[in-house]
Structure formats: C-alpha cells, structure tokens
Amino acid sequence: MSERPVQLRYLLGYDRELCAAVLSAFVRELSRSYRRRAKEVHGLSSIALAQTLDLLRGSRRPPVDC
User: What's this model's pTM, rounded to 2 decimal places?
Assistant: First the structure.
C-alpha cells in the first residue's frame, strides 16, 4: 500500500499531465542517483568516460546491479 496522502493519489489518478510530470521527475532523480553511485563505486570522473571506455574495449556487458 502506498504511503502517499490519499488526496495526492487521487490527483495523480485523475490528472494525466500531473502524473506524467511526477513520473518524469522521479525517473530523472533515479537516473542521477544511479550515475552518482556508479561514479563513486567505480572511481570514475564521469559516466561518459565509462561508456567511452566500454565502447573502445568492445564491451557489451549488461549494466551492474546496484
């Protein structure tokens, strides 16, 4: 069961644009969190550098689970 207030759940259920905006913000922050965590765990200065190195090595391994 969601711990969100009932009023907010109703608003999100009936307002498509609001729901899309909230979902977009959530996905954006989740992506930032994963990037930040990957940089810390692997000691990278940037995620673009990691992607470039993988391309140069020809690596096609799946993403690391966090």
Answer: 0.57
Residue 61 CA to residue 39 CA, distance in Å, equals: 17
Identify residue 11 by its one-letter amino acid code.
Answer: L
Please state, in angstroms and rounded to a whole number, the distance separating the CA atoms of residues 41 and 17.
Answer: 36
Going from N- to C-terminal start, the domains of the chain cover 6-57
CA triple 35-1-12, angle to 5 deg: 70
Give 13-23 pLDDT, tens digit per residue: 899 999 999 99
Give the closest residue to 39 by CA, choosing from 31, 50, 25, 54. 50
Cα–Cα distance for residue pair 32/26, rounded to 1 Å: 10
